[in-house]
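P.,

For your records, the input lines for the assembly:
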Amino acid sequence: MATNHPRDTLTVKPSPVQQKTQRFFAPCPRGLEGALFDELTELGAIHVGPTDGGVAFQGPFTLGYRVCLWSRIASRVLWQLAEDEYHHEEDIYEIARSIAWPNLFTAQELIRVQVDAIRSPVTSLEFVTLRVKDAIVDSFRAVQDERPSVDTSMPDMRIHVFLTAYTATVYLDLAGEALFKRGYRREGLQAPLRENLAAGMLALKGWRGQMPLFDPMCGSGTILTEAAMIAMNLAPGGQRPFAFEKIRNFEANVFDAMRAEAAAGAKPLPPNLLFGNDRDVDAVEVTRRHLQNIGGEATASAVTITNVPMETLAAPAPTGLLLTNPPYGERLNELADLKAWYPAVGTWLKKTMAGWKACFITADRAMPSGIGFKPSKKTPLFNGALDCRLFEFELYAGSRREPPKDKTA
Ligand SMILES: C[S@@+](CC[C@H](N)C(=O)[O-])C[C@H]1O[C@@H](n2cnc3c(N)ncnc32)[C@H](O)[C@@H]1O
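Structure tokens returned:
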């Protein structure tokens, strides 16, 4: 039974919250918090604070639009609606019930509640999920007959609750579908990288289109496509819808202006900047289609893509950044194949790629010793649930190749 609450009035004003500074949280792949901090700061966020798995920030409400449109690294943009202390489940219901939900979206929107917790004393996250849903429904019922329905697969509004030991924070997800879903990937190949992980690695290596980039095992071309979008100054969210467009008081004129500004700033992709290769012909075709999806044939044909075993390739330029995601060898027989293949990779790097910086993201810690190079840098990164390392090798002419000794890099 719904109880009366001081906020139980439907008061949709023309401009509800936009003027006030708002709090946001942007989750990202673990290991990219620093890169996301820099990106958010550049986009105009204030009080930017990285934590494990994401970055908190503040700014006007419309900064949420801008980050959804422009962040290459964030997975979502969560808008903070309430935060308070709690001791048991019913306190979390009250925190959620204190929010004037009918002022945020209509009862026609399908909702999904997701609860995550770190060191929370609550015994059932499912029960908390149910109580937060109850709070939203009760909030609607207090002012009107209709209530939103739950849809966990294709919701319009995602409500996220984050519990620590003492505090519950309620967020509305401004993105909708995760931000790494840019809209250009319409077909899958095995083991593609997440788009925001690829963009994050380019950011970690300081790549902004100023030097040649080469992915000799490009698979579906995620690294190349993200690099093309950076070089062309294309907004990563320019081709997709966002949940915030369904929020009441959505300022369409503000967002239209942001999109128009983004479209006006796009540049063609220069030739001889991006180079890709894969020994699998299907991979090469999918890569081309992904490049076409972001910028048409002009973009795809500006990228040189070959279809040979990497070890037979010449360097595409005297210097540049090689960034790639080799097979991981997750299955035992693949691991044996990988170990047998690594020395050939080392020989190829030494003979062919002197003058380049080479970066490999892999879950196989023995990769550097396998190829016989000592990494100049290793950065822990998560590819989904896989605990990976981004190994960097400086390839000098004359070589700093070392005998294989570092077994557990
Ligand atoms: C893990 S996948 C790369 C996925 C890619 N980063 C993406 O996002 O789609 C590894 C790729 O390396 C390719 N590959 C493996 N060994 C190769 C070799 N010796 N030469 C060229 N390509 C190779 C495979 O065909 C596969 O497409």
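Two observations worth noting. The pocket of S-adenosylmethionine is lined by residues 189, 191-193, 217, 219-220, 222-223, 277-280, 283, 309-310, 325-327 (CB under 6 Å). The mean pLDDT is 93.

Regards
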